[in-house]
Design goal:
heterodimer, A: 364 residues, alpha+beta, eight-stranded antiparallel β-sheet, globular, B: 176 residues, mainly alpha, 8 helices
């Protein structure tokens, strides 16, 4: 059996994948929910039926050309650590990480496609792209779905569209989402009104790991909620419009803050640098929150010579499962905090303290 | 808590429905009603007056049906997978694709509140796409036919009827 940690590229490599507007939009994804016509949904099916569905779906997905270099495995063959690693990479949901016998996963090495088998639906297939590429992600997952429908009988109703376990996903079964880094709106205290107006448009705003999670590191996920009565392309376009506006608001918030409250911003960035470059014990939560300000500092050109990808790499590699995978001994949370701090100090060794003015202007 | 409440209207029968009304100035008013008085007051005809979980409204459990004494104890179960309304109430998920037909009536209202529309627009599996288009076309022709007949435009009616004939169907196949 392949080891998922060996299979996936390193955090360093994965964070060198770039896309448009990735200063604010960290990644885009589109997922489709599909079910087989003749089987009960995973939550209601008994174990033998779930196993049967898995044995039908997994080879069909793994045989797709897009999945020629892929990791395909039943969930009961993965360790808790492997599953956590996949959650940290956003390749599976936390719900899927809790699954065992009768559930499975197919993910390609480029991490552009991930198909969860027997999560809430028989298939949850998603296309992932770095930066603001919701349309490209839709086109990619659309192709994957079209290839799969030739091999599998999907449950589809002429009136209701694709039938899903939960009525909230009925119709297109689509969820278009983008992960946004919004420290400017948070510091300017504009995030709540923005979330409220986005909610009013029928879109959901969630935390880093989806439903019911905190917005750690000022990272928010925006996605559509309604799936019936509107076409996939209309949903994608609607989300694109809203995302473009959020990007604009974030850029404006950063600019206004630097003009009107530069000390507030510089204080956050300076303290974040101070802590991350000097701490000897740091939790994963504090790391994410401080890295967010370091990332903002890079965006504001306060760390000349430092790439955003270094911050993104640290964001990923300091999370619990990624950290645990780098050492051979089983670590306690306290031990992880020590190792995390050691790693952070080492990686930030060559990063100088933040400037007090953006580099471009400081040079004049 | 375990004390049995008596209907606040007839002061006789045990109350089975508990309504809390919160007015705009935040004043709370509680009503404990028995089935008969609730019905007499018309609360059962307006599910929106209840703070019932979505699941209840969805499968018609919350409002009128549960209040209707003539509704027997027969529980609707999906013939394919054995899933019941009570199961939905627990999980908020359905049992199998067939459940959408079994519980169609109760679902309609919920889908309306949940989504932009109640009819799917967008992608369909390729094998069904042709059928889907035919069904849609037949439906629209039949509407046109009925309209023409209603307006006594028999020339138009005849031409639409011919068009339907050439499509090879007298009536559109059931939508699903």
């Amino acid at each position: 059996m392949k080891d998922i940690h060996q299979f996936l590229c390193s955090p360093a490599e994965s964070t060198h994948r770039h896309g448009p507007h990735d200063r604010i939009v960290m990644s885009s994804r589109v997922r489709l929910a599909r079910n087989l016509r003749d089987h009960a949904f995973p939550g209601w099916a008994k174990k033998p039926e779930r196993v049967k569905v898995l044995e039908t779906v997994l080879p069909a997905v793994a045989a797709l050309p897009e999945m020629s270099d892929s990791f395909a495995e039943a969930m009961d063959n993965l360790t808790a650590l492997d599953k956590q690693l996949l959650v940290e990479r956003h390749l599976i949901s936390r719900e899927h990480a809790a699954k065992n016998v009768g559930s499975g996963l197919v993910v390609n090495r480029a991490e552009t496609f991930s198909v969860m088998i027997n999560e809430e639906d028989h298939l949850r297939m998603q296309a992932l792209r770095p930066g603001f590429q919701t349309r490209e992600a839709w086109q990619a997952v659309d192709r994957l779905d079209s290839a799969l429908e030739k091999k599998l009988n999907f449950a589809f109703d002429n009136e209701l569209g694709y039938l899903t376990a939960c009525p909230t996903n009925l119709g297109t079964g689509i969820r278009v989402s983008a992960m946004l880094h919004l420290p400017g709106l948070v510091l300017a205290e504009q995030i709540n009104p923005i979330i409220q107006s986005v909610n009013k448009l029928g879109l959901a705003v969630r935390g880093l790991y989806g439903e019911g999670t905190e917005a750690l590191g000022n990272v928010f996920q925006v996605s559509n909620q309604m799936t019936l009565g509107e076409s996939e392309t209309a949903i994608v376009e609607r989300l694109e419009k809203v995302l473009s506006q959020i990007i604009e608001h974030e850029e404006n918030a950063r600019q206004t803050l630097m003009e009107k409250k530069p000390k507030l911003v510089l204080n956050h960035i300076g303290r974040a640098y101070g802590i991350l470059a000097n701490a000897h014990s740091i939790s994963s939560k504090e790391t994410m929150n401080q890295l967010s300000f370091l990332r903002l500092g890079v965006d504001l050109e306060l760390f000349p010579g430092t790439q955003r990808s270094l911050v993104d790499e640290l964001f990923l590699s300091t999370q619990p499962a990624h950290l645990q995978k780098q050492v051979s001994d089983k670590l306690s949370a306290e031990e992880r905090d020590l190792i995390r701090a050691d790693m952070m100090r080492e990686r930030l060794k060559n990063v100088s303290r933040p400037l007090v003015k953006p580099a471009a202007r400081a040079a004049n | 808590m375990n004390e049995k409440k008596i209907c606040s209207i007839c002061k006789e029968k045990p109350a089975t429905i508990f309504l809390s009304k919160i007015s705009s100035d935040n004043k709370k008013q509680d009503w404990d009603l028995c089935d008969a008085c609730a019905k007499a007051k018309g609360v059962d005809t307006d599910p929106a007056a209840f703070l019932v979980a979505d699941a209840d409204i969805m499968l018609g459990l919350g409002a009128s049906q549960e209040l209707d004494p003539s509704a027997g104890a027969v529980e609707v179960k999906c013939a394919r997978c054995g899933f019941s309304q009570a199961d939905f109430k627990k999980s908020g998920r359905l049992g199998c694709p067939e459940c959408y037909r079994t519980f169609a009536e109760g679902l309609a209202g919920l889908l309306k509140t949940m989504h932009k529309g109640t009819r799917h627009i967008g992608k369909a599996p390729e094998v069904l796409r042709a059928t889907r288009e035919t069904v849609d076309r037949l439906k629209s022709l039949q509407k046109k036919l009925a309209k023409a007949v209603g307006e006594e435009d028999y020339e138009m009616a005849a031409s639409v009827r011919d068009e339907i004939k050439t499509m090879g169907g007298a009536a559109p196949a059931k939508a699903r």
